[in-house]
Design brief:
This protein has 60 residues and is mostly helical. It contains 1 helix and no strands. It has one helix spanning 8-35. The radius of gyration is 28 Å and the shape is elongated. The N and C termini lie far apart (71 Å).
């Protein structure tokens, strides 16, 4: 495994740049989410509703 040649200051600068990039991405995704129509989490008819088995005529 090769040793990193970055200084701590270089590594910190890269981390800060990545944080800034992710914050910009978050802002863009939030704006997109606000413009898109809401998408229902559950589809109509899902989960599939199954009929209950017929009650037995023999009582316990």
């Amino acid at each position: 495994m090769a040793a990193s040649r970055l200084t701590l200051a270089d590594e910190l600068a890269e981390i800060r740049a990545e944080i800034a990039r992710l914050q910009q991405r978050e802002t863009r995704l939030k704006a997109l989410a606000e413009t898109l129509p809401p998408i229902p989490v559950f589809r109509r008819g899902w989960p599939i509703l199954r009929k209950e088995p017929a009650a037995s005529s023999v009582s316990a």
